[in-house]
């Protein structure tokens, strides 16, 4: 299986690539010309985009079986960033997938996507645009999964004791999770048929019972 990853040079994206390699996927990194990637994934196939119009993105997705979208706007003084990155760019990626007959897509979004009253919305209504990006995927006709992580952190010192809480849409509003566990959840979603057409919210802590995505989905889908 050939997996494409957009946003592969980002803090979550490169971890998705590492986890995909560990899981046996053939990985294609889709990055920008100014992107820097860590040494751990430099052996992967790379496609460098000059822009995200249909032609160049179509070429980058050719021959891939699935896509993890790990692109996302960062809080900045450019208040148009979320609209461009979390909505319009997501739409372009979805349209390109359809043209290339790439049917399986996992989107990394955010806890509280769609919520209006939230501090993150001070940065260009980022949660509103993320929800519109999600909706574009939901309406696409593709086999989609949306992963909504809580507050992201870089901590990888205690991962074995961190258990993920998987839940359905609009069930968690706070909590955090290491980016490494988000990456693992993306790969688990690709392997879990029950995750198709599901929005899955994830946070982690040592207090959560140990489970897996498939069991959790069956429990919260009842």
How would you explain this protein's 3D organization?
- Helix content is 32%, strand content 23%.
- The chain has 222 residues and is of the alpha/beta class.
- The protein has one domain: 3-Layer(aba) Sandwich (Rossmann fold), CATH 3.40.50.720.
- It has an eight-stranded mixed beta sheet, sandwiched between helices. The protein has a two-stranded parallel sheet with strand order 7-9.
- Helix 1 (13-22) crosses helix 5 (179-191), helix 2 (54-61) crosses helix 3 and helix 3 (81-99) packs parallel to helix 4 (126-138).
- The relative contact order is 0.14.
- It comes from Prochlorococcus marinus (strain NATL1A).
- Residues 7-192 form the NAD(P)-binding domain.
- This is Putative NADH-flavin reductase.
- InterPro entries: NAD(P)-bd_dom, NAD(P)-bd_dom_sf.
Query: How are the strands of the biggest sheet laid out side by side?
Result: 3-2-1-4-5-6-10-8
> Roughly what percent helix?
25-40%
The topology string of helices and strands comes to EHEEHEHEHEEEEHEH
What would you call the shape?
A: globular
Percent strand equals 15-25%
Could you report the average pLDDT, rounded to the nearest whole number?
94
CATH topology: Rossmann fold
Which CATH architecture is right?
3-Layer(aba) Sandwich
Oligomeric state as shown: single chain
What's the Cα radius of gyration? 16 Å
Spatial gap, N to C terminus: 31 Å
> Number of DSSP strands?
10
How many H/I helical runs? 6
Short description:
This protein is 32% helix and 23% strand.
């Amino acid at each position: 299986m050939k997996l494409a990853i957009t946003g592969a040079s980002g803090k979550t994206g490169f971890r998705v690539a590492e986890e995909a390699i560990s899981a046996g996927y053939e990985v294609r990194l889709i990055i920008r010309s100014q992107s820097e990637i860590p040494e751990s994934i430099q052996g992967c196939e790379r496609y460098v985009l000059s822009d995200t119009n249909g032609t160049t993105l179509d070429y980058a997705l050719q021959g891939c079986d699935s896509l993890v979208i790990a692109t996302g706007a960062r809080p900045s003084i450019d208040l148009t960033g979320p609209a461009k990155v979390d909505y319009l760019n997501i739409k372009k990626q979805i349209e390109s997938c359809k043209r290339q007959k790439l049917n399986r897509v996992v989107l990394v979004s955010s806890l509280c996507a769609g919520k209006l009253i939230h501090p993150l919305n001070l940065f260009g209504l980022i949660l509103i645009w993320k929800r519109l990006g999600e909706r574009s995927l939901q309406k696409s006709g593709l086999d989609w999964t949306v992963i909504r992580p809580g507050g992201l952190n870089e901590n990888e010192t205690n991962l074995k004791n961190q258990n993920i809480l998987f839940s359905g849409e609009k069930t968690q509003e706070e909590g955090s999770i290491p980016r490494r566990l988000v990456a693992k959840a993306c790969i688990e979603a690709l392997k879990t048929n029950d995750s198709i057409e599901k929005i899955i919210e994830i946070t982690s802590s040592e207090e959560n019972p140990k489970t897996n995505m498939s069991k959790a989905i069956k429990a919260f889908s009842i």
